[in-house]
Amino acid sequence: MLVVKERLFHPLLLSPKPRLIYRGSRANIHDETENMALKGTKTYPCCFKDRSHEELVSCVGWTTADELYSCSEDHQILKWNLLSSETSLVVKLPEEIYPIDLHWFPKTVGVKKQTQAEVFVLTSSDGKFHLVSKIGRIEKSVEAHNGAVLAGRWNYDGTALITAGEDGQIKIWSKSGMLRSTLTSQGSPVYSVAWGPDSDRILYTSGKQLVIKPLQPSAKVLQWKAHDGIILKVDWNSVNDFILSGAEDCKYKVWDSFGRLLYSSSSHDYPVTSVSWAPDGEVFAMGSFNTLRLCDKTGWSYALEKPNTGSVFTISWSADGTQLAGACGNGHVIFAHVVEQHWEWKNFVVTLTKRRTMQVRNVTNDAVDILEFRDRVIKASLAYGHLVVATSLQCYVYNSRNWNTPLIFELKEGTVSLIQQAEKHFLLVDGAGLYMFSYEGQLISSPKFPGMRADILNAQGVSLSNDTIAIRDKRDEKVILLFDALTGKALSDGKPLTHKLEVVEIALDQCGPSTERKIALIDKNRDLYLTSVRHLGREPKICKIGSMVHSMAWNDTANILCGIQDSQFTVWYYPSAVFTDKELLPKTLYIKDGSEFSRAPHILSYVGTMVTLRQGDGSLVYSSVPPYSTVLHEYSTSARWEDALRLCRFAKDQSLWACLAAMSLANRELTTAEMAYAAIGELPRVQYIKRIKEQPSKESSLAHMLLFSGQVKEAEATLLQAGLIYRAIQVNIDLFNWERALELAVKHKTHVDTVLAYREKFLKKFGRKETNKRFLQYAEGVEVDWEKIQAKIEMELSKEREKAANASVRSSVAARR
Hints:
This protein is an alpha+beta fold.
């Protein structure tokens, strides 16, 4: 990805700090405004009118991106309209109902999509949950638990509801409120519960422990101690598969779905009462007493606000991820939206200054352009000379050469969750599907596949090049689905690429023809592999090129790959060397010690010679890569081999010579390859290349080049197709594939004696006797005469030379004509 999102202040990067601009729910929050002014953050003290809560607000939930419902211990359900800044009473609940949790029925159910939520579940302290309509009518009340119902959550497709109670029980209910099963029963209250990304597992709290319980009865339960105090809130994101927890030990923590700790915060002054992921999984919010914090998915903090609200009991994000609301202990409902996000590309820095305004700064001449939008900005991406901005209703495409006249087109679906860019076009991902657009705004294709859930796709699981779209299949993460970018149809006759382990991250290279497109992938063992996208019916060759790789990115102008490998920053100057000469690959690497980076750096982009990395503490650092490899790729692509040799002689870098050797061999430029191998002291390979050059026919040369790359089957097939039977037999003899050599000789009824003779000579050398029944069988009826064998071999070679000479004459005559 070439998108750099910058949201923090750090001494290395003098940029404004991102922040949550928020508004209180009452008119009398002047103290709040004064406190916030110390932080330099804007507030709106008189935003909402007409009505407010008188008691603690226990829960909130969005119906649309501009409308929110809140429930309070004053028994009121209020509706907040952010467009008109008005608050209205939806319903006054009966006095015995004290609401605890609220969750709207999901908008997307299967392929059907509602414009807004119509019903929500409301849990209460009397042991019941209530299905309540949008107008406030209680459609159904269900006796669910002994004691308060502390949490209620719909699964992602709305087919099931889960409730957690003070009685320690977790129950699953149908959409209509019928009990399906009691999942677990424990001695302590279950304060919070969350569905797994595929709705097949449940995460819940058990005192100081977290428990992941699959719905399948025989599946293994995962349980671990997560905090030193009682856990109050959990959340599980469906996009990044990470888990959040907040507890009475005043800490919040980030976990993966295997229970491994990814981040633990320092201890706060008060218990962490709420945590919530943004829908896209890139950020999350944390609430505590008079505290609201915005954090990156890796745990470090973007912004900290100290509103005078009491404890924030619930945080709810709008579906587009641009704003959040919090239920506060002093009767406030706090609204906040994220501003001052940053995107960088070459000499341009784009900043979201307001919800509908962006600033573009050219750092070379300090020129500033202001971009205004009709609706709020949801997603943006800056790469390849274009800025793509998705608002709630429209998509804007700006060219970096002209910021004044954007191309604008309407969006069918407002909640764009991901934008991926390539040189010629870009991909929009929203809740309904994937859409490929040209930078002129034309819809090119819309790939579809069985079981597609576009809402859970992220940047690590989707990659785009000029001709290919790659998507990691969330149903089976060993599978990578490949599509033609221009047609949207599946590649390789619909057969996906399948790896032996679950894939964590994928990335397509960006340069070269579509027939040579490569995809790099990192699996769950953190091994890095490379393979071809188009393999023409053959089984794809997936080659390992690195281990302990935590992050990677392709260069934007050449097929150079960089990655964080263990504690080192590694650049693979020519990763495709693994297909031509695997032993050469380690010599093509550029390695830099990772001591200059802090813990767990993550690569954001690799543009030109500059790599941008995000460190574990959130700061940005930049690392430069020598420019010679990019120039060498350019010379190789345009077949300027003399220039490539001159560059390597000038740079005096062994890794460049190794790259040139692999590049020239891949392009069958044997003279250059011979010189490059000689420069790095690979004399056996130099001798083999001379042997290749001495071959009498093109087919033999090609076969030996395939053998050089370790492609034995392909070499044999090339010789057989050209009718060079003896050559194919001799290849297997040279590799001691005796049974295959005999099989070919018998099948084509030639050189059976040759195979037996070489076999006999081989065994005699090692003082062994023949034990193979097949060889013993043919040895009885075939006489071995070395003089006849040598004569036959010489005749075969002369035939091959004659055939090659005739082909050369024919081609020259055809050329003259």
